[in-house]
C-alpha cells in the first residue's frame, strides 16, 4: 500500500540533476513535502487548500512575535540612548535583545511565507526562509552562552573591566554571530536531503535528518555548558567568605534558577520533537505533524529574555519608563526634557561594573549580586 501511495506521489519524479541546480526547481518542494508527510497527490492538494488561511495559532504567534520585536527594540533603545549602559554586560544584553528581535521578525516572516505559500517557493527561497529563523534563534541561544562566559570570567578573574574587556566582548559577540550564521547556513551550502529522499526530515522536508540531529546536539551542549558555568559561579560565590551574605547567595541562586528554568522549559519541547524527527518517520510518530506548536513554545524564550536579563536591573526599568514616556506611551506629568536627564545608578549590575573598572582583586570578594 505504501509503495502504491509513493508511486502516486512521485508520478512526476524529480529529475536527478546536480544538487545545486535543483535549488530553482519549483516543483521540488511539493514532491518532497508529499514524501515527508506520506501523502498522495490528491491528499497533498487538499492539504494545500486547507492551509490557505491563517489559523488561530498562527495569529497568536504573530501577536506574540510582534510583542517580542517591540520589547527587544525597547531594550536596544534603552541601551543605546543612555551612556550609563555603555558597559560590557549591557552590550551583551543588547546583543541578546538584537538576536531575539531578529528571531521574532524571522518567525513573523516565516508565518506569512508558510501554509499554501510554501509551495510557491523555490528551494533556495525555502532554505532562506528556514535558515533565517535558525540563525536568529541560534544567535539568541549563543548570546545566552556568551553572557554566561562573560559572567564566569568576570567573577573569577582580576581586573575584569580593564583594557582587555572591549576585545573580549567583541570576540564573544562576533563568535556568536559567525557561529549562528554558519549553523543556519549549512543546509543552503549543501547539507540537505535533495536527491536523497530517505534522509529527509518530516518536520522540515528539505533538511537532512543528520543535520537536524547535529543541531540538537549542538544546542544540548550549549545548555550543558550554561548549566556548568552557572553552577561554577554559584559554587565560587558560596565559597567566598567576604561580603557574600546569605541573602546575596539566595539572590544569585534565584537568578540562575530562573535563567536555566526558562531556557529548559522553552527549548526542551523543541529539542524533543527535533530529536524524534531525526529517528522516526511521520507514520510511526504522528506528533511530528504538530511541530509548529513546539517551535512556538521555543519562541517564548525570546519574549522572556528581556524580562530576565534587564528588568532585574533597576536602572533599566527606569530607562524603560523614560523611553515610553518620551514616546508618549506613558504620561508622567513631567516635562519631556526630563527624559534626557542622566540616571543615578541604583542597579547592582551597573554598580559593580563601575566600581570594579580598575579592580585588582576578584569581583566575587566585593559584590556577588552583579552576577
From TrEMBL:
Annotated keywords: Cell membrane, Disulfide bond, G-protein coupled receptor, Glycoprotein, Membrane, Receptor, Transducer, Transmembrane, Transmembrane helix
Gene Ontology CC: one annotated term: plasma membrane
Gene3D superfamilies xrefs: Rhodopsin 7-helix transmembrane proteins
Entry's transmembrane regions: 57-78, 90-113, 133-149, 170-191, 211-237, 249-273, 293-311
Transmembrane in keyword set: yes
Membrane topology, as annotated: Multi-pass membrane protein
Positions of disulphide bridges: 193-200, 280-285
Matching PANTHER family: G-PROTEIN COUPLED RECEPTOR
Name by which UniProt lists this protein: (Atlantic silverside) hypothetical protein
Species in which this protein is naturally found: Menidia menidia
Species classification: Eukaryota, Metazoa, Chordata, Craniata, Vertebrata
